[in-house]
Amino acid sequence: MPAAPTARKTRVAVLISGSGTNMVSLIAEGRSPDSPYEVVLVVSNIAMAAGLEKARAAGVETAVIEHRPFGKDREAHERALDALLVEHEVEVIALAGYMRLLTPWLVREWEGRMLNIHPSLLPLYPGLNTHARALEAGDAEAGCTVHIVTEGVDEGPVLGQARVPILPGDTPDVLAERVKAAEHILYPRTLSDFVGRLHS
Question: Which residues are in the Formyl transferase N-terminal domain (predicted)?
Answer without folding.
Answer: 11-191
